[in-house]
Design goal:
By secondary structure, this protein is an alpha+beta fold. It is built from 22 helices and 14 strands. Among the domains are: 8-42 and 57-95 and 185-357, Alpha-Beta Plaits (2-Layer Sandwich), CATH 3.30.70; 359-454, Orthogonal Bundle (nitrate reductase domain fold). The two termini are 34 Å apart.
Length: 498
């Protein structure tokens, strides 16, 4: 058992209001620089919709992530192989281009400030931030925001291909139009394809917390990482010639602060904590059939309360602070204890460490004859006639396994039902408890879920000690090697000067 600690994240989608405050906070802190104008390390998409970059989920086009062949000894990169890796350094047909993102622009504000007096209202012409020439804006970040049901965006969502023709047609009826928001950052995967694809070894996972970073000194701008990332969360800076990505605000984490997008989140949808996992299980965990991937990933996580796990963690150099944080982690509760949080497109097999609680509102939002059946026998039948088919959510969060999504939806519905019943007593008590039994939950668990969802303090949402980066580096150095050392580097290959 090779116990590792990993900073992990949960986003609760029922709480996201699509305000983009997180995106703006990240933009102001990290990507407000020349060459980074089109970068959005944090973006919020409307689902159903094509996302950013456009149709990033189309791996037939972009070929990101890993592919699994039954009987094979290991996973293979989709973006490149041993035979064509060198050739694709110079030309990769799966590489996204500027049209897949958008050409960043600003406005010619001097046309407003210096316009002569006249009868017409002056306007500011949009100009490209790359060429400085006027452009016709046709797309942008979050361009399909709130446009659920449109033929240009929502109907081109690849996840709709999993639906039947009848389900797809019903989804675009006026009375069934629905949407939800999907915030996305780098998943800081436990099995990252970007790390495997980088020819210069510039991308690495920090051993003490699992955060994936790019060494800017080593990066040579080959962009193999951009093609390999199935979530398209690595960007190329055309000014510096380097790749860049979300760093999970590790300078803030090292001082015990949450990342900027977490700190600014208006809906308080974000949870941050520590997960302990067995690194020995990771390779085999992603070599199973698609429908088994969610449970297979769960099997790699270790119970932080197990004395054997705690002993193995200490042996591996994991600090007491990290172990205590793992035992209090809200992420552990959502993923393993309550089994409500699921990974996004786990079929890419990168083992993402960002998890989502699927949205309940689109499921609850459609009814027959204006009423729901509030009895133990018919309460969960609303899943069958929901505005957003369960099969669509399964395509996003469980690699098509409807049973996983149904279990999550039932528990979320049971939480809402029980909390309502406590106030209005609109159902017989026996029916309420029957609903809880079918959802495989209890009043005590419902109370815990409700409290963590609705009224958590900032200290309950973010449970992480200062990362103590300097201690992690010192633990890898002998006293003799560190004698006379004058500093440290974020590069994992760093060797102290003796």
């Amino acid at each position: 058992m090779d116990v590792r600690a990993h900073v992990s994240v949960v986003f609760h989608l029922d709480k996201c209001i699509g305000c983009h405050t997180c995106s703006v906070a990240c933009k102001n802190v990290w990507t407000d620089r020349p060459g980074a104008e089109y970068m959005w390390w944090n973006n919020v998409e409307t689902k159903h919709g094509t996302g950013y970059p456009t149709r990033w989920e189309d791996q037939e086009k972009f070929r990101g992530g890993w592919q699994f062949q039954p009987g094979a000894k290991a996973l293979d990169l989709r973006s490149q192989g041993r035979a064509d890796a060198l050739f694709k350094l110079f030309y990769n047909p799966s590489q996204p281009n500027l049209d897949d993102y958008y050409e960043p622009w600003t406005y010619k504000y001097e046309d407003l400030f210096n316009a002569k007096a006249g009868d017409d209202q002056p306007t500011a012409v949009p100009i490209s931030l790359i060429t400085g020439e006027p452009i016709d804006i046709k797309a942008g970040p979050n361009w399909d925001d709130d446009l659920s049901g449109t033929p240009l965006y929502a109907e081109n969502d690849l996840n709709l291909d999993k639906l039947t023709a009848e389900e797809r047609a019903q989804l675009f009826e006026v009375e069934r139009l629905t949407m939800f928001y999907l915030p996305r950052i780098c998943n800081h995967c436990a099995n990252p394809s970007c790390v495997a694809a980088c020819p210069s070894g510039a991308i690495y996972k920090r051993g003490e917390d699992g955060i994936v970073l790019i060494n800017q000194e080593k990066c040579r701008g080959w962009r193999a990482c951009v093609a390999a990332c199935p979530y398209k969360k690595i960007y190329y800076n055309w000014k510096t010639g380097k790749s860049e990505k979300c760093i999970l605000c590790f300078p803030r984490l090292e001082t015990g602060q949450p990342p900027a997008c977490f700190h600014s989140c208006v809906g308080r949808i974000r949870y941050l904590g520590v997960m302990l996992y067995d690194a020995e299980r990771v390779p085999a965990a992603m070599q199973v059939a698609d429908r088994a991937l969610v449970e297979s990933q769960r099997s790699t996580f270790l119970d932080p309360h197990d004395p054997l796990v705690v002993a193995a963690a200490r042996k591996n150099g994991i600090s007491e602070e990290f172990i205590a944080a793992a035992q209090k982690s809200p992420v552990w509760k959502y993923i393993m204890q309550w089994k409500l949080a699921l990974p996004l497109h786990i079929e890419y097999r990168t083992m993402p460490m960002l998890f989502y609680v699927p949205p309940l509102l689109p499921v609850m939002g459609h009814s027959v004859n204006g009423t729901y059946g509030h009895t133990a026998g018919s309460f969960f039948t609303s899943l069958e006639r929901s505005r957003l088919p369960v099969r669509y959510l399964a395509s996003l969060f469980s690699a098509g396994n409807d049973q996983v999504i149904n279990a999550v939806m039932k528990k979320l519905m049971a939480v809402r039902c029980y909390q309502r019943w406590l106030t209005v007593h609109d159902l017989p008590e026996d029916d309420v408890h029957a609903i809880l039994r079918e959802a495989q939950t209890t009043p005590e668990e419902v109370a815990e879920i409700s409290a963590m969802t609705a009224i958590p303090t900032v200290y309950e949402r973010y449970v992480l000690p200062p990362l103590q980066r300097e201690e992690a580096i010192q633990s890898t150095c002998s006293p003799e090697a560190c004698k006379g050392c004058t500093g440290f580097s974020l590069d994992p290959s760093f060797t102290p000067r003796a």
